[in-house]
Amino acid sequence: MENQSNWNKISEDSSELTKKIKDKILTENEDINESLKNTISSTTEMLKKLVENIEDTIKDPEIKSESLELIKNISIELETFINKNTQFFDIEEE
User: In 1-13, which positions are buried (b, 16+ CB within 10 angstroms) versus exposed (e)?
Assistant: First the structure.
């Protein structure tokens, strides 16, 4: 009888530990998701400002065009990377 009681206690302890671990993972995942969203948003704003600065300050048409093309290519690469690597996170497009 005592053996059964010990197994019940172990089972309860195991269930409780499993719940704590799941709760911790969910909390950390939410933190990571929020951080990733903030990073994506900051990067988007930075690229927009960079484009604005290029358009406002560079007068040479060829340099301006090449600079904007470079920023466009960087944006495309970042978007591709983000789309491929955020599939495991709960990131909603804004």
Answer: eeeeeeeeeeeee
Q: Give the structural domain span for 9.
A: 2-85
- Sequence-distant (6+) residues with CB within 8 A of 64 are 54, 55, 58
Give the count of domains, the chain: 1
List pLDDT tens digits, range 11-25. 788 888 888 887 777
Is the pTM higher than 0.90? The answer reads no
Whether residue 67 lies inside any domain: the answer is: yes
d(CA 41, CA 38): 5
Domain-embedded: residue 10: yes
- Within-domain flag for 90: no
Cβ contact 18:31 at 8 Å: no
